[in-house]
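Q: What would this chain look like folded?
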Amino acid sequence: MSLKEKISSDAIEAMKRQDKDTLGVLRMLKSKILEMEVQLRTSKGRDYQLSDEETISVIASYAKQRKQSIDAYTEAGRMDLAEQEKKELEILGRYLPRQLSREELEEIVAGVIKDTGASSIKDIGKVMKEVMARTKGAADGKMVNETVRARLA
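A: My prediction, written as structure tokens:
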């Protein structure tokens, strides 16, 4: 079962359980996935379906929006809205790969720096590209950037 199919199946289950929060998040997520498929169909053919990796990137992007909303609502003192966004983020987290710990990420970054021969901050782009390819959604881009910068500085 593909990730997209699992999301659809879980949406049906949420509907049966009358879980409005989960259902709302999954419907929005399905909409984002469909939007990306339609966008890619112009270049990849009219029957194009997202792969699981592409679906994960859509989910990660949507989760990032939720995190930014949490920060904005917290700064504005709207804790009620921040809590709602946290619930949505938790639901999205069920469909994302387990996030790497700081130590695991540092180990990957060290390996990439060694493999690519990077020696200065000028090589950050090359290292970032390879680390992001190896982690495939299991690490936040901001955390990757901070770790790479610290290693190359």
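The mean pLDDT is 90.
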